[in-house]
Specification:
Radius of gyration: 17 Å
Number of helices: 8
Shape: globular
Number of domains: 2
Strand content: under 5%
Order of helices and strands: HHHHHHHH
Distance between the termini: 38 Å
């Protein structure tokens, strides 16, 4: 699966030549290097998982690797491709993790829903964005209820609520 993507990194670079012309060469090379490294890491993680598919730590690493590639693609303005990786990350998280047993994984799941909601919003898919926000908010409400002094989680919940209000107002 990723072999084609690794081969496509030069195609990604070609696609972004117009943007890269505006960016200092060293920064463009760093971005290419970061994406290539993230794709290589994802490929290695998938190979490791094939030998032990029930290993939750490796599955966690896989979800994080999908997120990292998605983040790098989103930064390049390649939203459709980024959304593909975010959905893959969400699929791994939903399939393998009992998120209620681990607050770190629970928050990562909420963040994953949040990234998808932002992507859907940028694509003009407000109903899909609201659906993802609802999922993110439900998780964050539970987290905040269990740790009411956690200001970071409260801030994240407020951010999701503000995004949902903005989307509802735009209807």
């Amino acid at each position: 699966m990723l072999t084609a993507l690794l081969g496509a990194t030069s195609a990604l670079a070609d696609k972004n030549d117009g943007v890269r012309a505006l960016v200092p060469p060293s920064l463009a090379e760093e971005a290419d290097d970061a994406l290539t490294a993230a794709l290589n890491h994802l490929n290695r993680t998938e190979r490791l998982i094939s030998s032990d598919p029930s290993n939750l730590e490796r599955q966690h690493d896989l979800a994080a690797a999908f997120d990292r590639v998605g983040d790098l693609l989103a930064k390049r303005g390649m939203l459709d491709q980024a959304m593909h990786y975010y959905r893959n990350s969400l699929g791994v998280r939903l399939y393998f993790f009992d998120a209620k047993s681990n607050t770190v994984w629970q928050r990562e799941l909420a963040t994953n829903h949040g990234k998808l909601s932002l992507g859907y919003e940028r694509q003009g898919r407000s109903e899909d964005a609201l659906r993802e926000l609802t999922q993110a908010k439900e998780i964050m409400v539970a987290l905040v209820a269990n740790a009411p002094d956690n200001t970071e989680w409260k801030s994240e919940l407020i951010r999701y609520e503000e995004q949902a209000s903005r989307l509802r107002a735009a209807r």
